[in-house]
Amino acid sequence: MTADNLPSIKIERPLYEHNQLREDLMYEKTKKSRKWCKNISCRKIITSTIPSLGWIPKYGKTDFFSDLAAGFTVAIMHIPQGMAYALLGNVPPVVGIYMAVFPVLVYFFFGTSRHVSMGTFSIACLMTGKAVLEYSDPVYFKPATTNGSDLIFTSTSPTYTPSQVASAVTLVVAFIQLIMYFLRLGIASALLSEMLVNAFTAGAAVQIVITQCKDLIGITIPKVSGKLSGN
């Protein structure tokens, strides 16, 4: 059998336009139903915004002791963790204990998962510590002069303390997050690639380990602010 006598297949496909394709396939655009408006009520809106109002009436007494034991366990864990994160944020260690309390109370009302342990976050403390170091008076990060058993600072001019700067940063961030919550801007996190998030997390982890080494070894390193500048 020669090449000219080989069987061949000829396929013809019509060139469709969008309207012609819909007409041949008898496509009809579905009409949007407005029944979803009837299912919306003020109660559902409130319970979706504050989920605790939905599960507190159904809370059983048998879960109380289990939640109490879990609460003590998490509280004990947050004491040293909060103190370490406070040092990371350049504020007194006792502030870290306060930071470990309030996020849990807020999540109690607005949280949607009972398996999540809320508290201080290392990267947020690291970024807050940078602002504290930049806008606080450097005298708060210098060794204090001793006068008997008391410690006094050599500066008498009105300045911002590290706690004041950290509180101002926290308040501003809270307002920004509330605006993002009401505008439903959480979807913007989908624009961040996994490689970018992993690189940022790895860099922050290295920075956290380096900043904690001085406290672990017991050495004093003077704090500096600005780009490659010291006091």
UniProtKB/TrEMBL annotation:
Cell location: Membrane
Species for this entry: Phyllotreta striolata
Topology of this chain in the membrane: Multi-pass membrane protein
Keyword Phosphoprotein: no
InterPro entries for this protein: SLC26A/SulP_dom, SLC26A/SulP_fam
Record GO cellular component, one term: membrane
Gene Ontology terms: biological process: transmembrane transport
Positions of the SLC26A/SulP transporter domain: 64-220
UniProt keywords, alphabetically: Membrane, Transmembrane, Transmembrane helix
Protein name as it appears in the record: SLC26A/SulP transporter domain-containing protein
Pfam family, one: Sulfate_transp
Regions that span the bilayer: 87-110, 165-183
